[in-house]
Amino acid sequence: MKKWLMILMAALLMTSGCSTTQSQPETGSMKAGTYTATADGYGGKVSVSVTVDSEKIVSVEVGDNTETPGVGGIAIEQLPGQIVETQSIALDGIAGATITSDAILTAVKDCLQQAGADLTQFEKETAAKSGEEIQLQKDVVIVGAGAAGLSAALRLQESGQDNILVLEKMAYTGGASATCGGGFLAAGSRYQQQAGIEDTPELMMEELLEKGHHINDVELTRLHAENAAPTVDWLIDDIGVQFNTPQPSETTINRDFTAVGGGAGMMQTLAEAAQQRGIEIQLNTRATELIVDNGAVRGVLAEDTDGNHYTIQAQAVLLATGGYGNNSQLMDEADVGRVIYYGPISSNGEGMTMARDIGAKVTNLQYVGVKPNGLETGEGIGKYTQPANNAMWKASAGILVNDAGQRLIDETSSEEELVSIYKQQNDWAMYTVMDQAAYDIFYSTAIEKHLFSEAEAQQWIDEKGTGTTVFVRGETLQEAAEQAGIDAGQLAQTIENYNQGVAKGEDEFGRQVVAAFDTDGPVYIVKQNLRFATTLGGLDINTHCQVLNEQDEAIAGLYAAGEVVGNVQGDASSAYLSWSATSGKIAAESISEQLQ
Q: Which of 99, 142, 239, 437 is most open to solvent, judged by the fewest CB atoms within 10 Å of its CB?
């Protein structure tokens, strides 16, 4: 069955009152009534009300919660219905929203226990779905519903192509684009001109090449730079995406548009536009193989979560499937060093793999977008805390040291400078050290921006540095340093040097410090790893976004856009969202021209 959904639409939260019960039927295993329970979600407590009769679950309603209204909202919207339909709490939950799903399932279990249920009746595995063989005929199939895929779909429709199908393997649209900060580089936009900002694509191209250390493909970098401004103007004028007034990028030129609401806000607008325009998006459906006829791509094979198998014939296929950061096999091939992955679980590289299987050329697999200030929560995976770090550095006394307790750099230095220092340390890691005032800013910012949850922070502190995540609290500097595995004596000297600099108004590393470090305690120390979410390798394309084979010839009928393309950003992530939307728009125009 086809499932239709928009990304990042906040779920309709159904209110729930106090637990009530009704009289017990003469027969049956449960006491009929409505029961309420709460469980820890990602952003805090999730309240769930369950109504049962004597034999079955009648309804599940999610009430008060502070879950992220994007992916977490999808779990809130979809999982209650699945529980009622299957009469089971032995479900996998919604991929990408594991914590919210677990909270709902835990609360439902609690409610069933209150009703006196025999839990074994509700913990049975659901039967596998057999599905059907389905044949479809489309003009264009777009695989992936992130910024590249939805931009392409919208532009194709504007160009008169109505017989389009967007396939998305997840239960929601948005992809990695919905998890990014929303920065969008564009030079020469009408909105820059209206603000009196002088800029050119040539200057943007210079910035992109310098950021990527000139490993970028020059022609594709030029393509990006020359088309980013028309793309941002189109997104604003025709699609309704809202951007803040452009701010300075890594140069002094104000060309960094940032989407209101970040990447999530932009993706919500794209999804709403696609829905309003009637673009066909099929969720929970994974493309598995490209259909090839006489060397040309003529469609895809796919399967959905209901067990249906699709053969979709098409004149053109656009791969907008994102990166491969969550694919351990491909990451081993990349061999990027000690860097944790904090990107979406959907970035498994299927699009690149499908194209590679038919002879497509791949390039730059060894490069990922490495950034500082990650937080390892499992082996090789984790979260990022950069916004919390930045807020704390600017407004309080917090410092960054190595495991020897030495401070080596101005904490507000560029990402590239910080990454260089990290790579010189044991385990490619540094440690953020904070007094109470600094930690309060760090913690509140992290909670507000959903970087980690209250429950997670408390669990890490309770572990006292014995778990994977080193996130400790000590009543004294000595206690905190011992838990974190840092040289306490050297750390004390480092903080004394820092405080002397504050007193003189001259920080030894040039940072603008605003407060002395309170050594009376408590003291917090967080181990920070290098992190990445964006992979920089992938398919090789030409300036029409056609995928190339090993002989640098275009593969007929096959196009690619967004992060699945591998030779655009060099060795450093730069303007990810800008490239995704811009290349999606270019690919759509190329496909439309080819089909006419």
A: 437
pLDDT in tens, the chain (596 residues): 333 333 333 332 233 333 333 333 344 589 999 999 999 887 678 899 999 999 999 999 998 776 666 666 778 888 898 899 889 998 877 776 777 888 899 999 999 999 999 998 898 877 666 789 999 999 999 999 999 999 999 999 999 999 999 999 998 899 999 988 889 999 999 999 988 999 999 999 999 999 999 999 999 999 999 999 999 999 999 999 999 988 887 778 999 999 999 999 999 999 999 999 999 999 999 999 999 999 999 999 999 988 999 999 999 999 999 999 999 888 888 778 899 999 988 899 999 999 999 999 999 999 999 999 999 999 999 999 999 999 999 999 999 999 999 999 999 999 999 999 999 999 999 999 999 999 999 999 999 888 998 989 999 999 999 999 999 999 999 999 999 999 999 999 999 999 999 999 999 999 998 899 999 989 999 999 999 999 999 999 999 999 999 999 999 999 999 999 998 989 988 788 999 999 999 999 999 999 98
Which residue is associated with the tokens 């914590």?
99
Q: Is the C-alpha dihedral spanning 280, 285, 287, 292 positive or negative?
A: negative
Q: Indicate yes or no: pTM above 0.85.
A: no
> For residue 25, what is the DSSP state?
P
Class of residue 397 by CB neighbours under 10 A (exposed 0-12, middle 13-18, buried 19+): buried
How far is residue 509's CA from residue 413's CA, in Å, rounded to a whole number? 10
Single out the residue of 409, 435, 439 nearest to residue 517, CA to CA.
Answer: 435
Distance (Å, whole) CA 203 – CA 534? 24
DSSP 238-255: II---BPPPEE-SSSSEE
Residue 551 contacts by C-beta under 8 Å, 6 or more apart in sequence?
A: none
Contact 192, 246 (CB under 8 A): yes
- Whether 357 and 555 have beta carbons less than 8 Å apart is answered as no
Q: What ranges make up the beta strands (E) of 390-428?
A: 398-401
Q: Are 519 and 477 in contact (CB under 8 A)?
A: yes
For 320-479, where are the E strands, in sequence order? 340-341, 362-363, 371-378, 381-384, 398-401, 429-435, 471-474
In DSSP terms, 431 is beta-bridged to: 401, 527
DSSP string, 67-81: --TTHHHHHHHHHHH
Q: Could you give phi then psi for residue 83, rounded to 5 degrees?
A: -65, -45
Nearest CA to 357 among 584, 545, 555, 156? 555
Q: Residues, the chain, total?
A: 596
Task: Report the candidate in 408, 405, 423 with the shortest Cα–Cα distance to residue 525.
Answer: 405
CA–CA dist 304, 310 (Å, integer): 8
Phi/psi of residue 146, nearest 5 degrees: -90, -155
Strand partners of residue 381: 341, 378
In degrees rounded to 5, what are phi and psi of residue 318? -110, 120
For the chain, how far is it from start to end, CA to CA, in angstroms? 32
Residue 351 · residue 562 · CB < 8 Å: no
Q: Which residues pair with 247 in a beta bridge?
A: 256
Give the CB-side neighbour count of residue 285, counting CA atoms within 13 A: 28
Residues facing residue 258 across a β-bridge: 183
The pair of three-digit structure tokens given for residue 203, joined into one six-digit string: 């200057």
